[in-house]
Every structure is written in structure tokens, then in C-alpha cells.
Amino acid sequence: MNAPTTTAPAAVLAVVGAGPRATGVLERVAANASELWDGRPLHIHLIDPHPPGPGRVWRHEQSPLLRMNSMAEDVTMFTDESSVIEGPVRPGPTLAEWAAQFSGGEVRFAPYAEPADPDVLAELRGLEGSDFATRRAQSAYLDWVFRRTLAELPSHVTVEWHPTTATAVTGPPDGPQQVHLSDRATPLRADMVLLTQGHLDAVPGAGHLELSRFARRHGRFHLPPAYSSDVDLSGVRPGEHVILRGFGLAFVDLMVLLTEGRGGTYRSEADGSLTYMPSGREPVLYVGSRRGVPYHSKTRYQLQGPRPPLPRHFGPAAVDALLAEGRPLDLRHDVWPLMAKEIGFAHYHELFHAHPERTTLPWRDFLAAYDRLAWYSDEMTALVAVAVPDPADRLDFEALDRPLDGLAFPASDAFQEHLRDYIAQDVARREDPAHSADLGAFLALLSVYGQLPRLVASGRLTARSVADGLDGWWHGFFSFLASGPPGFRLRELLALSRAGIVRFIGAELRVGTDEDSGAFTASSPTVPGHTVTATALIEAYLPGASLGRTEDPLLRGLHGAGALSEEVVSDPTHTHRSGLLTVTTDGASHVVDPTLGGPHPRRIALGAPTNVRGVAAFARPRTNAPAFRQNDAVARALLKTLDAAVGGEAPASRPPSGSVGRGR
């Protein structure tokens, strides 16, 4: 490594987007700098109208009623002993561990600063590991992680925050880039640009635009897909009948904002149930979706047995074997059986170790047979039937995936009772450690997701399989099982249902319009012949990826200029346009620029808009999180590339080392 020199020109990195993904990369820059950076000045421009650390999604300025869907002890921004990375591991506290210092104990985590919001401080002081924190509490944690990262940067690395929007990036592949900002005429000069904008809004598609036009013609309310914490719901009138299309986390947020957010309260009953006390300002919510049921409740317990050793059946060796076959792969036919077997292994590992009284074979004997049998085989079915007598302890993906298939109810009221019973059973199971095998399956789901990017990057999955299997069925199934709300939210849903504020429509939801009455309509084969009419329609799900319709001006401009490309997977039978930004799959995540015929050497992109799927910005501890692996690889690539590309004069002025200034 070269000795530090004061005459070397400064390198400049521009980071567009200042949320947790950007913070994660900066943390890895700090971790890797001693090895890969020689002490010359490095100046980092951080560009985001929202505060660095939390960014837009986790900013403090949102409803205090909105919460995370992970327990506080399951949220971390730091690498740990499970992380398979090239750079150094630098452990740090989970949200729960960080919050514990505010309850009167020892100050453990510098730089220490109590949150300015007294409500957030009070929450942190009482936060338990098994609690589902508010998003404002997570905002405070992410703010601290960002400040800690700044403190760990070497003195010659400086950071400057520009609280504005990046509107464009220009520049040749072999020279400095110009990052244009909405509030200044002169662009920023940078040797490298890192795009970490996170989840993006999109202009509504043709179908949603037609529904909005219908709503305007008849004086009705229609809300296209949007981020629920940002939407204006004032147009929804008290008592108005509203159809909500979607039963996932976006629905849960909307449910909260339209009920408790309008002054309603819950009363706890002696039997543990809740009773909703309306304010009189709530609408009536009719909800349905493809499955017709809410996402499964999150578990609220720890493993009762030893942690399953993952991966076992779907790890790097299994992916290697699939790729070695040298033929197109179908996700459901070729890959899913291995994924299912991996999830089943973790499920039964926990069942046999934590609840052996509910099994009939020694684990060693069961595992020997399980390892040699295919997941979808009569022999596997027979093995599980003998070894696990209670069907409630067996893993049945088909029953989990479509719980309303084959069911039809003669009247809506009968379906309301059925679904209330289904939800109550789900909440009870996910909060009862006797069913901790479900947590084993959940951990395997995370492991499986972490193995998929390499398979996708190989290009071996058929186009139809990527479209229908990966981006369609698998993404929805994973979210349904692993990304559900806390149990207390589903208990609130039950209370709202009993109060008549929420009504369930059913599965395979069909939404239409009636020009004569000016009403929206909804129906489902779950209750044949029953049609709901309403004067408002809310699309209760997030905007889909779409470079063609993105509201991000920088990406929209690059896409319009042909300087980046949408992922297109094509084969002789099908073409799939995913709407995602194509980046390289070598770990460095360079933007693929069609005008260059390959990767742009000075532009990198990470996160939700890219075709590296399923990589969350923060993670559950000790899961070898894909995001941390990706952050480390990108940080190392940035430092190496900046070292080679540095040139020109240093910026005229920079804020003090390790601090954040408001650049203009």
C-alpha cells in the first residue's frame, strides 16, 4: 500500500439516495478503508431530500401508529460471525440491543444521543426484544447507525449531505461524472456515482389511469398503488364504502390509518381479544385479493431447539449442480423441489429437536431417509406421515399457499365467520412456541432467498419461469409466509371485522365499474353471486417496478436517453420485461449501459430498482444476509475503482472529517 500523501488529488463519490442501503455501503467503506485506501482525500456527496440514515421510507415524519413487521431483536444493520464477506466483520447492536441503553443502563453505543422526540425516547426505554417497534423508533436507530458510520470513517474521508433531488447524471465512461441537482445550476463532479434510491413511485399504468378517470367522471375516489405512509386519504369520507384490492402489508397500514388514525381505539377484553371503539369517522373497508386472506402473522418466539444448519439441500453446491446441467431451468419444476426440501428440512429439524414427543422416529433415522428422498414423491409423503402423526405438524405448501381453494360459501356472513376463525388460528399458532417448527421454516425461507440471485444471474431460468415463477408466484408466496404483520395487527383486524368496519370479499378478487351507478364493484368465487358496490377503490399494494413509468427523474432521464436498460429475459417461447434496472452480476453491480454495449465503469446501482432481487437493506442477525455481502463487495469495488480513476483537483471546500454538511 502506498504511504499517505498530502499532494495526491482527492477522489469524489456521489451517492444518490441516503437511506439504509447507502448507510450500509458507507459502513463497509469505513470497514475496508484501512486495507484498500491509501490515505488520500476521499469526499462523498450524499444526495437525498430526506434525512441520511432513515431516508424516505424510515423517516421520522410519518404516523406514529405505523410499525415494523419484525421484532426489535431481529433487526440489524451490522455484519456478524455468519457473514461470508471479503472485508472485515464489524459487529454492532440490533435495534433491541441499541434501545436497551436508554432504559437507565450503561451507555454502550457511541455516539450517544437521546432522540429529540419524547414519545420515541419513551418507546425505546420500554422496548423489549420481542416487540414490534414503531417506524419512528427504527428511524432513530438508523439515524444512529449513520452517525456511528461517520465516526468510523478515516479522517481523510468526508461526507457532505445535499438535502435535494438528483435529477440527472452525465459524463463519459472514462472521465468524471456530473450529477445535476434540482436546486443548483452547477452539477456536482464525481469520479464514481452510486445509485441507492430505494423503493420508487411510479406513474399509474393504463388500467389504473382508466379507473382514476372513471372516479373523476363520477366524483368518486380512486387511489393507485402508492406508499401508504405518503398518501392523502382525506378524500375517503366517514361511512363511505371502500374496496381495498390487496391483503398484504400495504393493506395493514391503510387499515390502521383509516381506523385508529381517525380516532378509533381498542379495548382489551378478559379473554385476550380486542373490541374496537369507533370514532364515527371511519369508512367501511371491503378487502379481497388473489388468496383472499391476510399475510401470515409473524412469529413471536425463538427456536426451542438448536439452530438448523443451513443450507443443506439448496445451497451453493445445489445451485452448481443445477447450472451444470446446461439446459433451461423451470423454477417450479426444477428448482422449487430443492427449495421446498430445504425449507422442510429446517421445519422438521426444529420439530424433532424441540418437540420430539410429537414424532415417532429418531431424528437420525428420519434425516437419513429424508436426505435421499425427493420432496414430491410418494416415499417422502409416507415417511412424513409415519414420523409426524399430527397433520398440523406437517409442512403442506399447497394448503399454506391457497387456503381458500375449493371453498365456497352460501352467504357473505358465513365467509366472515370462516375467515375470522382462520385468522384467529393463525395468530394463536404464530405466538405459541409449541409450533416453533414454523420458525425453522422461516429461517430456511431466508436462506433459500439468499441462494436465488446467483441462479437468476446465470440466465438459465426460462423467461416464463422468471415472469410467472420468480417475479410472480415465488415473490408473492415468500411475502405471504415470511413478511406478514405482527400478531396484534391481525387481532385488531378481527376486532374491526366484528365491529363491521372491515368486511372480507374472498379470493380471486374481481374489480369492475358500473357507469350507470358510478360505483366500483367487487366479487369473488369464494361467495358466488355476491357483489360489493362501493364509491371508493384503493389499490392496497406498492407500485410495481417500472423504468418506463418511474417518477425518479434521474432514472427516467437515463432510461429515456438509452443509457440504462430494463431487464429483459427472452427465449424462443416468451419475453419478460421485469421493469428492473439491469446491473452486472459480478458483485460490483455496475449499471449496464446499452450505449456502451456493457457496464458503465463509473456508475453502480443497488437496491429495489435493480434486477438483483430480494436484497433487503437491513436484516435478521446471524443469517449471512445477502445485503451485507452485496454492500461489502460494492464498497470494495468502489474503493478500488476510485483509486484507479482518481484525477483532477479536489473540491474547493469540504466539511470537517466524518461530518455531514448541507451542501448547496
UniProtKB/TrEMBL annotation:
Domain FAD-dependent urate hydroxylase HpyO/Asp monooxygenase CreE-like FAD/NAD(P)-binding: 14-199
InterPro entries noted in UniProt: HpyO/CreE_NAD-binding, L-asp_N-monooxygenase_NS-form
Superkingdom field: Bacteria
Name assigned to this protein: FAD/NAD(P)-binding protein
